[in-house]
Amino acid sequence: MTIDLTQFHQTFFEESLEALSDMEAELLRIDGHMSGRRVSDEFKADNESLNIIFRAVHSIKGGSSTFGFEIVANFSHVLENLLDDIREHRCKTTRNLISTLLHSCDCLRTLVQNSQNGINTLPADIDKFQVNLENLQETGCEVTPDRRRKTRGIDKNNIGNWDILFTPNKNMLSTGNDPVRIIRALKNLGNIKSQLDINSLPSWNKINPEYIYLSWNIDLLGPVEKSLIENVFSWVADDCVLDIKRNNSVHNPSASRPEHAIDSGTGTNAPAPGVSGNGLEVQSIRVSTPKVDALVDLVGELVITQTMLSQFSEEITSESIEKLQLGLGLLERNTRELQESVMRIRMLPVGFALNKLPRIVRDVSTKLGKKVKLDISGEGTELDKSVIESIGDALMHIVRNSVDHGLESPAERINAGKPETGAIHVQASQKGGSVVITIEDDGNGLNRNLILNKAIEKGLVRDDADLTDEQIDNLIFIPGFSTASQVTGVSGRGVGMDVVRTRISELGGHVEVTNNPGSGTKLTLRLPLTLAIMDGLCVKVGSQVYIIPLLSVIESLSVPEHEISRPAGGSELVPFHSEYLPFLKLYKLFNLSSAIKTTTDGIIIIVESENKKIGLLVDEIVGQQQVVVKSLETHYKRVEGVATATILGDGEVALILDISTLTNLVSHKHYQDHMLKAAS
Predict the structure, then answer these.
(1) CA separation for the pair 228, 124 (Å, rounded)
(2) Among 28, 183, 467, 676, which lies 20 to 30 A Cα-Cα from 612?
(3) What CATH number is associated with residue 208?
(4) How far is 271 from 267, CA to CA, in rounded Å?
(5) Predicted pLDDT of residue 522
(6) Residue 282 included in any domain
(7) Residue 417 class from Cβ within 10 Å (0-12 exposed, 13-18 middle, 19+ buried)?
(8) Number of domains composing the chain
(9) Residues 107 and 166 in one domain
(10) Are residue 508 and residue 552 in the same domain, yes or no?
């Protein structure tokens, strides 16, 4: 019996992608040490970094060979050979070579993801690049002739046809390895014929189905280097007896296959487990052992509490009331701790979202001819997995814009009295129930005159508009806005910053921009810790209870009716400090007749989304509490102005308001029509 290796595919994919991230980080670290050098200058990288990079590719090659992902294995093999030349100093390490290796990392990541989605074809661009890698290795990788390989063959005594005796340890299957997969991987090296040896098979009544009692005699035909064969078996080197001997006899590749020959096909092309037929990956998450242990301990406490409470199921006396109250108190505490532990399982370091930024900075700065130093701090700050997955594009757009628009060229920086190398600092920290990520550069800041003129030119702002500095700064978030004079591969199409604001708002967060002309720009992203549980402000409108996300709440006001401003043809405005804000009467929006109708008797809740502030008229504030977010569309349908729902302690369903939609409704004609219809 052979173990179904497809059950290990998902783990292989996850570990491979993690290994590629480590490889990319080490390459960028080496590249950072080479800053200021010419692209052709040689740099001696430390052996530990080179070993980390080599091990990453070697592990991917071994795993892909074992699991039958031959396209990944072939590319990894070519890349591994090149890395071996670098380790042995047969290639000199230059910035050009680092760029090639970074692109190799991208190609290998694409191939792994393709295999994960059941795509078993080699893209033409990667095929061409793989050939270039082979040629690069053949020509000695930018080195002088005396340091090149003598020949690609190395040692003629180690090339030829081979007889291979492969005897797996009987418990190899328990390690997740399949000998048939190993034999199939040999097909990449040449024509093979294999003879199955069954002499060690015991009688049927003594066979253990989890053991291997077989061995293989394999003829490998073709001019193959012995080290390549050893590489194929390196994954199981400790789980087998391997004997490789050169065979000088001439074989006929078309000869008939002997009895018990093993099919050397490549296996199935079906998607791996964890991938559905349409290519969508089933999400998974790795959890540290301490978090699991804490969860198990809490479950044990709940069992003890349940046993205690079960004693009162038959009869409750006055003497047992005190013990019952104690048990309920323990149940409440354990439930709260269990909730927090479960939420911590979904929490991941925000570094998972930040680790792509060094590559972005390197690529964009190289393309633009700028010198940039990126400093990242607070990578260990934890954030919900779903939030981390959603902010990657937003962070990428912000950092790309900082390099492109924010930082000056080296010559401009020197003329301005600044160091020629620009600086971008990314910092993550937790503040209360939210995580704050700041991206700050020391460039020239936002050019307000240019921004305003471009907005007027594009018809986004009226010619006679009187905007404050803050309002001008926030024009960069308008869809389609760009100050670039021409479209390039980096910017100019008017997409990016509007994506940032939209994505962060969808997560229930905020984006703030701080502009210091001549000194730089800082963007602040404030994000909820998790999307599964949120802090909310419970308010009542008529007989209904609604939840306002606490991150959106600024202040609550009691405003007499006579202080409300009613400009001709416009919305009603409520005074808030030094400005007037539009406000929504929720009872009209949700058609609740029994609610309070005036601001004198009700309460105005000031909320903010996408840098827009509005007021919400409610009857009363019930209190603040954590709520478990439930999807409304899954069980009902989308409701305008409502994001999701939750279940309160009394079993009633409360709707969670969508502040982003409500702020947009204020100035939208749809809201005016809705109000008129409701009033009639």
Answers:
(1) 25
(2) 676
(3) 3.30.70
(4) 12
(5) 93
(6) no
(7) exposed
(8) 5
(9) no
(10) no
* DSSP states along 293-325: HHHHHHHHHHHHHHHHHHTTSS---TTTHHHHH
Q: What is the pLDDT of residues 626-670, one digit of tens each?
A: 787 877 766 676 777 888 888 887 778 888 998 878 887 775 543
Pairing of strands 612-618, 620-628: unpaired
User: Could you tell me which residue, 57 or 236, shows the higher pLDDT?
Assistant: 57
Residues 154-172 have pLDDT tens digits of 444 555 678 889 999 888 8
Query: No. of H helices and E strands in the chain?
Result: 19, 21
CA distance linking residue 348 with residue 387, whole number of Å: 10
Q: What is the pLDDT of residues 445-484, one digit of tens each?
A: 888 888 888 888 888 788 877 788 888 888 888 776 766 6
Dig out the tokens for 539 from the structure.
């308010």
563 and 649 share one domain: yes
Q: Which of 547, 511, 577, 520 is nearest to 646 (CA)?
A: 547
Sequence-ordered list of residues with C-beta below 8 angstroms from that of 295, at least 6 positions apart, any chain: 338, 341, 342, 345
Interatomic CA distance for residues 257 and 218, integer angstroms: 11
Say whether both 544 and 617 belong to one domain: yes
pLDDT reported for residue 152: 41
Domain with 587, as residue range(s), is 533-679
In the 3-class helix/strand/coil scheme, how is 27-40 assigned residue by residue?
HHHHHHHCCCCCCC
Q: Extract the tokens encoding 611.
A: 């840098």
Structure tokens at 483: 């100050």
Q: Do residues 562 and 572 lie in contact, with contact meaning Cβ atoms separated by under 8 Å?
A: no
Q: Which of 563, 552, 559 lies closest to 433 in space, CA to CA? A: 552
* pLDDT tens figures, 302-339: 777 777 777 665 666 666 777 777 878 888 787 777 77
Average the pLDDT over 530-538 and give the result: 81
The residues near 136 (Cβ < 8 Å, ≥ 6 apart) are 82, 100
Report yes or no: 1 and 209 within 8 Å, Cβ to Cβ.
Answer: yes
> Both 15 and 40 in a single domain?
yes
Closest to 365 (Cα-Cα) out of 11, 1, 36, 30:
36
